Fold each of these.
Amino acid sequence: MKKLLTLLAAAVCVVSCSQRPANVEIIPVQDNANPRMMPRALFAEAPDSLFESLGLQEGIPSSVCAFLAKTDGKNILFDAANGAPDSRLMGVLESCGVAPDAVDYIFITHLHGDHIGGLMKDGTAAFPAADLYVNKVEYDAWMAMGEEQSASLRAIAQAYAERLKIFTLEDELPCGVQAIAAYGHTPGHTAYRIADALIVGDIMHGVALQLEYPQYCARFDADHEQSVRVRKEILQMGKENGLTLYGMHFPEPYYIR
Ligand SMILES: [Zn+2]
């Protein structure tokens, strides 16, 4: 009987591990070479008195980050930062022993330039072997914006060709990654859960303000009402499930628990 129970426990473990990898290492990749502050003016709805009481008059500490996840021998990138000349992305990946062609999957939270700029290098795909995952809601919204707004996306789509995977929330994603609708900052802004990590994209641009006062948006949020609701929901989801939240504009150490 004891042996049977042990076998059953092992079987259950195998099933749950393959669906949701337990062994995931998340490595924040700070892309910005110089310190980043989000200016006070970005948060026009928040009163001066609040900024003063929080000591944030000079701005809110921030960053531009991508995240590398290592699991089951696969290298996964969440976003690709902005690809500016002083971008640290490739250097940090190299220091982690991950060559550009060793990135297997890239999941995009949304299509702002500071999240997709690093996908291209000298007019070609910076990650020549990676499958690139973009939520269909986000993809369609940007494609509908017209030639100028969607120029970067069109170039990326051409460069990644059949490796560009447009998905819906019903689709199963590789490595047990789960996409979560976090619409508001952009039309199809998407969070991703992998094991106990939640990659939350741009739900907060100023953690020192918005963690405690989620009702205030940065100017970058396209739909303020929806962004506020989503920010509260994602923070609640993290709390209820004991998840670690990784944000693309969180200050060091780039996550909150
Ligand atoms: Zn951003």
Amino acid sequence: MPKLQIDLDIAHASTLPAHLYYSQEEYDREKKALFAASWQLVGHVHLAARPGDYFTFDLLGESLLIARGDDSVLRGFYNVCRHRAGKPATGCGNRKLFRCGYHGWTYRLDGALLVTPEFEGVEDFERADFGLTPVRVEEWFNLIFVNLDGEAPPLRETLGQLPAQAERFDFRNMKFSERRTYDMNCNWKTYVDNYLEGYHVPSIHPGLNREIDYNAYTVEPHAEYVRQWTPIRGSQTGDATPRRYERAAADLTADYFWIFPNWMLNCYPDNVSVNIILPLSPERTLAIFEWYLPEKSLGSETAEKAKAFSDEIQMEDVRICEIVQKNLHSSSYQSGRYSVKQEKGLHAFHQMYRELLPG
Ligand code: FES
Ligand SMILES: [Fe+2]
């Protein structure tokens, strides 16, 4: 029988049981206990920088609307019309009002209901009671988060040491470069597990392995997130292999932050990428990747190379995750063991998971 808890001692611990990676029942529990309860990253502030800017986001079946009001306040709503559940907004852009596409109910940027065509004679109806249903929104480091169940502590309190570690990167001054999405045939945890170890780098990512010092790869679990970091090799090592960071200083690092349960911040000195790992069903997951660059490097050859490099790594990860996802169904496999040296990150993730979703 697979164990119901994760042993606190990694040397004795077994990984999460395989059925949690495809069970519909577990997926439904996760939606409530993990995703609705946590602060969920929905986008970068450039999508809603000026009054009237808005964007929509689908979060585990909930359509959300994020908008900046005339008063510059950022607000979040369920993107669900209070009349008969049409959509007040689609896509993204800039608006003075949101007009539902079904019968024309019109809402202000702050969610208040303004216009209800042909509604004369309706009794016991106050427009003030039919504004868009709000959802909690907070910002950190130019990123926008929502919390669906409304009970979570303030965002900052859930980030621990992350701000202190991530804010040394120049992300705030970087500009949006590109967004790519990857529709993957695997459970969201299969993807997160893979992200949380560098163990597979030599076998799965030969290109990346040339760039980083595999032996100096450090995994640092925190209560709320895992930081993985590695020094970046410069050209002072004496060999002639061309590398992307020719004048690497000794303290130059690449930091990969994964924040429980499903988003990542990948920080390099000259680019930052954000990943949102969105479950679509037990065995389908959408990875949203966005790249940010210093303004002067937007469109430059170096930037294009950095994105192509990241895309290559991602395709390698998707391939292995989809293979693993299929094999998790094998009648021969129940659960596995952790490398003490290389899989501390997964072990930390699985403990966080079991704390909220005991067996
Ligand atoms: S559903 Fe929106 S106006 Fe009817
Ligand atoms: Fe990988």
